[in-house]
Amino acid sequence: MNHHDPTRWETATKVHRPVPMAPAPLVVQQPHPLPDVQTIQLPDGRIITGYAIAPTKAPEPVAERPAVNPLAVNIALGGIGFAAACGGLMLLTTFIAAVAALIQQLVILAAVIFGGWIATQVLGNNHGRTGGTVVNIRRAVFKRNHFHG
Question: 63-79: string of b/e by CB count within 10 Å (b at 16+)?
Answer without folding.
Answer: eeeeeeeeeeeeeeeee
